[in-house]
Amino acid sequence: MSQTTVTFRIPGDEKELVSEYAKAHNSSISELYRNAVLEKIENEIDLKTLKAEMKLSKENKEVGISQSEMEQLLSEV
Asked: What distance in Å separates the CA atoms of residue 74 and residue 65, rounded to the nearest whole number?
């Protein structure tokens, strides 16, 4: 897979904070930013999917069950 370079500006104190965080987590700054952006996109997609499914469930007048009821059903499998 080919890669490209993206450049953006951040204040020096933020760069220092990000650099220290990346170092503490054995990560590069690039990897840290890339993962953060991709996670944000994934979370937004997950939220949109959840909202769509909740709307569909409401339209279909589906009834939910409690966690303990779900655990009981799963234990029977």
From this structure: 12
Q: Which amino acid is at 49?
A: T
Q: Which of 17, 41, 39 is nearest to 29 (CA)?
A: 17
pLDDT of 63 over the 90 cut: no
Q: How far is CA 48 from CA 24, 35, 37, 59, 73, in A?
A: 33, 20, 17, 17, 28
The amino acid at 71: E
CB 24 within 8 A of CB 16: no
Burial of 25 (0-12, 13-18, 19+ CB in 10 A): exposed
CB distance 32 to 21 below 8 Å = yes
Give the global pTM.
0.68
